[in-house]
């Protein structure tokens, strides 16, 4: 609507310049009024013609139809395909923007976004919730929601919120506990141990909480020992001769000599390529397949220009010779010398 107001003002300025020397007195006033009416009618005509009025009307009708349902009921309706995701999002935005300082609404909106896998939108909603109710406990609560969702992007958001708490309160016990859990869920056991050991300093020896945290540390240490053996390591020997700035991602693959989909796949950012990479049973793509039972396989590393999993012309790759099987903790050296045609 502001566009049309601006259009009217421009029309009046133009009229003042065009007719300033032609009309005088009442004639000038009549000319201005006529142009004002003409510009306003034209603006309204364009407004209705382009469908903005119809869109607002449809939004109002949708809101009236859904106004009797709470947020959880709306989410269930979207799950059951009774309303579309677009209709759900439109109604949620309308409700939250009408009450911008309502912490409960923004938090519930973030939860619904996470339910539908909309992690970035959930982060926006939670940011508004934190603005409505600032504090460390709110950020830790938000981090917990992200951790429960469990995607890599969600874990990253959880870590960021917890780190913001620890920046201001390095000894915040709830943040130390949650950051340990966050890393444990991502199988980053050494990091989890470090946070929990720091937390243990603030618990009385012999207390129940001290015992529980100690058990968590012991479990993480066991998992760490297993992870130190339960992988193969891949090292790229000719990195210094490669122009890495041309590529976005690197894909590490375990492939069968017979062809077909890869047995295991791991993708990383090019910036991490200088670190030896580990392929574990968690990287297996095929259901029911054990990485250590796979036979007649080879390991391939491909540098992708687009960052897509599908090989494209211009990508570079290298691979090992065919191995009868893989042995845990084995290390493979690869030189990337071939190009995808």
From TrEMBL:
<keyword id="KW-0201">Cytochrome c-type biogenesis</keyword>
<dbReference type="GO" id="GO:0017004">
    <property type="term" value="P:cytochrome complex assembly"/>
</dbReference>
<feature type="domain" description="Cytochrome c-type biogenesis protein H Ig-like">
    <location>
        <begin position="248"/>
        <end position="330"/>
    </location>
</feature>
<feature type="domain" description="Cytochrome c-type biogenesis protein H TPR">
    <location>
        <begin position="54"/>
        <end position="207"/>
    </location>
</feature>
<feature type="repeat" description="TPR">
    <location>
        <begin position="103"/>
        <end position="136"/>
    </location>
</feature>
<keyword id="KW-0802">TPR repeat</keyword>
<keyword id="KW-0677">Repeat</keyword>
<keyword id="KW-0812">Transmembrane</keyword>
<dbReference type="InterPro" id="IPR019734">
    <property type="entry name" value="TPR_rpt"/>
</dbReference>
<keyword id="KW-1133">Transmembrane helix</keyword>
<dbReference type="InterPro" id="IPR011990">
    <property type="entry name" value="TPR-like_helical_dom_sf"/>
</dbReference>
<keyword id="KW-0472">Membrane</keyword>
<feature type="transmembrane region" description="Helical">
    <location>
        <begin position="30"/>
        <end position="49"/>
    </location>
</feature>
<protein>
    <submittedName>
        <fullName>TPR repeat-containing protein</fullName>
    </submittedName>
</protein>
<dbReference type="InterPro" id="IPR056412">
    <property type="entry name" value="Ig_CycH"/>
</dbReference>
<dbReference type="Pfam" id="PF23892">
    <property type="entry name" value="Ig_CycH"/>
</dbReference>
<dbReference type="InterPro" id="IPR056413">
    <property type="entry name" value="TPR_CcmH_CycH"/>
</dbReference>
<dbReference type="Pfam" id="PF23914">
    <property type="entry name" value="TPR_CcmH_CycH"/>
</dbReference>
<dbReference type="InterPro" id="IPR051263">
    <property type="entry name" value="C-type_cytochrome_biogenesis"/>
</dbReference>
């Amino acid at each position: 609507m502001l566009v049309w107001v601006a259009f009217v003002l421009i029309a009046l300025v133009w009229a003042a310049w065009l007719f300033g020397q032609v009309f005088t007195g009442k004639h000038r006033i009549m000319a201005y009024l006529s142009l004002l009416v003409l510009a306003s009618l034209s603006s309204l005509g364009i407004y209705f013609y382009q469908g903005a009025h119809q869109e607002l009307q449809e939004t109002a009708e949708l809101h009236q139809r859904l106004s009797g349902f709470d947020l959880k009921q709306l989410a269930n309706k979207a799950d059951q395909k009774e309303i579309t995701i677009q209709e759900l999002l439109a109604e949620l935005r309308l409700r939250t923007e009408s009450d911008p300082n309502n912490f409960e609404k923004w938090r519930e909106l973030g939860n619904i976004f996470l339910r539908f896998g909309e992690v970035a939108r959930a982060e926006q909603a939670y940011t508004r919730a934190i603005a409505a109710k600032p504090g460390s406990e709110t950020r830790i609560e938000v981090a917990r929601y992200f951790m429960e969702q469990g995607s890599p992007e969600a874990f990253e958001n959880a870590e960021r919120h917890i780190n913001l708490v620890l920046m201001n309160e390095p000894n915040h016990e709830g943040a130390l506990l949650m950051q340990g859990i966050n890393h444990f869920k991502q199988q980053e056991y050494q990091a989890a141990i470090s946070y929990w050991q720091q937390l243990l300093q603030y618990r009385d020896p012999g207390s129940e909480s001290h015992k529980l945290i100690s058990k968590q540390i012991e479990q993480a240490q066991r998992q760490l020992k297993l992870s130190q053996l339960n992988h193969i390591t891949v090292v790229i020997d000719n990195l210094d001769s490669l122009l890495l700035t041309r590529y976005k991602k690197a894909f590490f693959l375990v492939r069968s000599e017979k062809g077909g989909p890869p047995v295991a796949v791991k993708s990383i950012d090019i910036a991490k390529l200088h670190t030896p990479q580990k392929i574990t049973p968690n990287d297996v793509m095929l259901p029911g397949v054990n990485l250590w039972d796979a036979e007649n396989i080879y390991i391939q590393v491909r540098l992708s220009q687009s960052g897509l999993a599908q090989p494209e012309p211009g990508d570079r790759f290298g691979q090992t010779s065919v191995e009868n099987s893989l042995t845990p903790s084995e290390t493979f050296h690869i030189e990337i010398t071939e190009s995808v045609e």
